[in-house]
């Protein structure tokens, strides 16, 4: 009897091994002036023990040595790596190109200045996908200060049906689900044409813009409590997070409108949805306001104009609330509501 059990166990292992071989992943890296970290990023993919993948390097008009680095790696691994060159259009449309060019059912897109921590990352991902047949897989990540971002969800649990409300609630409660690089997803979740109807002025928060429809359309989501990715927040100085752009508020507004549209369509089981969306709206607006500190100090009048434009926008005025936001954000929002733009410009420096 023990021999039979042992034989059955071996057969199960063999079947699982065969199953894993059927999971192919299209891996893409959008690249713009990332030569300082690009080698480490690509190496973290190439050294994966799981080899059922393609690697697409999409250069978004880099002016540094990034393209040469891509060519070096392609010359070493011509059967795995493809290079696509394009004019500079930003990360959002570059990721759109990544999705279009991907050959396989499952897609993974990571940032060029980050890297996978474990050489077993794709093994872990492929095992989870085959075990659950998930539409969307989410895993943990770490930052430069070794802070690990994880979710308050059971690891390995298949989340579907009414259970998806816990994912929706997490999307509304924090930014942990915003990144694209902690997710592997089915290509079928992307409406390639309509998902990019209104992308003008989206100059930051592009991950969030693209993550919203993935989470909303997924019928089955799996989270694994495995830290597989290193996010280098202080890495690439070309990153938009280190710069001020006058479109910052419009970007926040468009992202929030997109979230509200999808939420009202998909988040049926989320309690107090409108109140939660209002809190998210105020968080995003206050973040856009706070970005004024990235402007040069001598641009005082420009700062005041930027703040006034936000404070007089109907989207802010009609949706104003400080309920549910922290005291720092509430203070900023009250200054705006009272039209104290000059004082706020002096304080945010």
For this entry, give a set of tags.
349 residues; alpha/beta; ten-stranded mixed beta sheet; 13 helices; 45% helix; 15% strand
Layout of SSEs?
Blueprint: H1 2-21, E1 25-31, H2 38-46, E2 53-60, H3 66-76, E3 81-86, H4 91-101, E4 106-109, E5 115-116, H5 121-132, E6 136-142, E7 148-149, E8 158-160, H6 165-173, E9 183-186, H7 206-217, E10 220-230, H8 248-266, H9 273-290, H10 300-311, H11 314-319, H12 327-337, H13 341-347
Q: Helical proportion?
A: 40-55%
Query: Which consecutive residue ranges, at least 5 long each, have pLDDT under 50?
Result: 1-20
Tally of separate helices: 13
The count of strands amounts to 10
How much is the radius of gyration in Å?
22 Å
Major sheet description: 10 strands, mixed
Envelope shape: globular
The rounded distance between the terminal residues' Cα atoms is 74 Å
Structural class by SSE content? alpha/beta
Strand content: 15-25%
Secondary-structure element pattern, one letter each = HEHEHEHEEHEEEHEHEHHHHHH
| Mean pLDDT metric | 90
Provide structural commentary.
It contains 13 helices and ten strands. It has helices at residues 2-21, 38-46, 66-76, 91-101, 121-132, 165-173, 206-217, 248-266, 273-290, 300-311, 314-319, 327-337, 341-347, and strands at 25-31, 53-60, 81-86, 106-109, 115-116, 136-142, 148-149, 158-160, 183-186, 220-230. Strands 1, 2, 3, 4, 5, 6, 7, 8, 9 and 10 form a ten-stranded mixed β-sheet that branches.
């Amino acid at each position: 009897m023990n021999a039979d059990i042992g034989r059955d166990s071996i057969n199960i292992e063999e079947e699982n091994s065969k199953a894993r071989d059927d999971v192919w992943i299209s891996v893409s890296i959008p690249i713009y002036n990332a030569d300082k970290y690009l080698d480490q990023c690509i190496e973290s993919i190439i050294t994966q023990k799981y080899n059922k993948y393609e690697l697409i390097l999409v250069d978004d008009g880099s002016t540094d040595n990034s393209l040469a680095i891509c060519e070096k790696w392609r010359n070493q691994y011509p059967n795995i790596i493809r290079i696509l060159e394009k004019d500079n259009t930003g990360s959002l449309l570059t990721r759109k190109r990544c999705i279009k060019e991907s050959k396989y059912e499952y897609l993974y897109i990571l940032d060029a200045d980050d890297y996978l921590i474990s050489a077993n990352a794709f093994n872990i991902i492929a095992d989870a996908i085959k075990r659950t047949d998930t539409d969307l897989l989410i895993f943990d990540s770490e930052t430069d200060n070794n802070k690990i971002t994880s979710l308050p969800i059971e690891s390995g649990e298949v989340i579907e049906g009414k259970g998806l409300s816990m994912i929706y609630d997490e999307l509304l409660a924090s930014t942990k689900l915003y990144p694209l690089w902690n997710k592997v997803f089915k290509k079928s979740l992307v409406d390639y044409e309509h998902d990019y109807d209104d992308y003008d002025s989206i100059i930051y928060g592009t991950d969030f813009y693209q993550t919203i429809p993935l989470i909303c359309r997924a019928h089955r989501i799996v989270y694994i409590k495995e830290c597989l990715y290193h996010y280098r927040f202080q890495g690439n100085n070309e990153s938009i997070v280190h710069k001020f752009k006058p479109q910052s508020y419009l970007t926040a507004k468009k992202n929030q409108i997109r979230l509200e549209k999808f939420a009202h369509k998909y988040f049926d089981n989320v309690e107090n949805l409108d109140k939660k969306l209002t809190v998210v709206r105020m968080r995003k607006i206050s973040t856009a306001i706070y970005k004024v500190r990235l402007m040069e100090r001598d641009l005082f009048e420009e700062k005041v104009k930027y703040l006034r434009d936000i404070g007089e926008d109907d989207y802010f005025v009609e949706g104003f609330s400080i309920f549910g936001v922290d005291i720092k954000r509430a203070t900023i929002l009250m200054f705006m509501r009272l039209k104290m733009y000059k004082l706020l410009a002096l304080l945010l420096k």
